[in-house]
Give the backbone structure.
Amino acid sequence: MIKLQRSKFSLPAGITYLNCAYMSPLLKSVEKAGIDGIKGKRNPLQISPEEFFKTGELLRKQFSKLVGCKDPSRIALVPSVSYGLANAVHNIKLSPSEKVIVTGEQFPSNYYPWQRLCLDSGATLDVIAAPPTTINRGKIWNEKILDAIDHNTRVVSLGHVHWADGTLFNLKEIRRRTLEVGALLIIDGTQSVGALPFDIQSIQPDMLVCAGYKWLMGPYSIGLAYYGPYFDNGKPIEENWINRLNSEDFAGLVNYQVAYQPGALRYEVGEHSNFILAPMMLEALKQINDWKPKNIQAYCASISKKPIALLKENGFWIEDEKYRSSHLFGVRLPAGKDLKTIKAKLKKKNISVSYRGNAIRVAPHVYNQEKELMNFARVLIE
Ligand SMILES: Cc1ncc(COP(=O)(O)O)c(C=O)c1O
């Protein structure tokens, strides 16, 4: 079991940060990598042509390790989820009889690309809303998704957990059903990968994309994506020099190439050898791989068990353990409780959470302790 890791961060004393789903605090090791990256450009002689490729390779390896991908060349460096998905959408042609399935109130970066694709092709965007119940909500929601997947379905795109309240989606079952009907499965892992185990080999998604600044603990504007065999011969949304074959040969760059670098490297963003962000992301992934998502998940479960039980006893609604994550969960208020008052009280006590839809989103990590979550619960109850 992981022990409290707060000393690895520079979080100020006196604040309770239960908001990793908004943005992770910076690890000291990641901060140092960023500062070293800035200093590196004091003297450009320190940045050799090899440096343009080195960190990217290490990043692809670390991310592969994290998500159980056997082939690091299937991993691409992207600046955002929307960028990674734009490459996917660019390579999917739909006919008007086909449909794309997303979950209700999905994060906009994983909604708008499909909306655009459907508007342009006349296909249907099928939004599977959460059921209007607090009894077996997660179970019924999963069943609704499975029921919606039929022979007209070309794509299912969703998270492993819902970004607003941590509802767990049963990706194994969804994959099984998508394979039955020949639909693509695309996962936005931004709110789960890093803190909840995810295995490419067992889920076999066609694509996975993760922003780096939340559960991967990296800086803003860098993320990672996996592209499966469906995308092997696809067209990227931009044509940059470094994604072409032999770009390592700086003297021969104008021996223009038709071929791309192998695997998914054609989908990498221009200037991805970012000498500040890439080393930061690398340090962060090393730390996450060291802790391991299953241990992070177990830690979050252990510190949240008692406070969740207390909240439930007092009429608050939180999804059953089987259908939610422990690193991200939503708390819904009982009748008579006023969200505005609770918000003000939490703010006064320096307790940071997020408010998404009608849920208070709680997102602890290894820098948190049970007593912080107990304090949070007491503020809600009092
Ligand atoms: C589920 C999910 N996906 C993606 C993002 C970020 O998207 P982008 O990288 O396109 O800004 C967020 C940010 O909150 C998110 O919660």
The chain has a mean pLDDT of 97. The first helix runs from residue 28 to 40. Residues 80-82, 107, 109-110, 159, 163, 188, 190-191, 211 surround pyridoxal-5'-phosphate (CB under 6 Å). The longest strand covers residues 153-159.
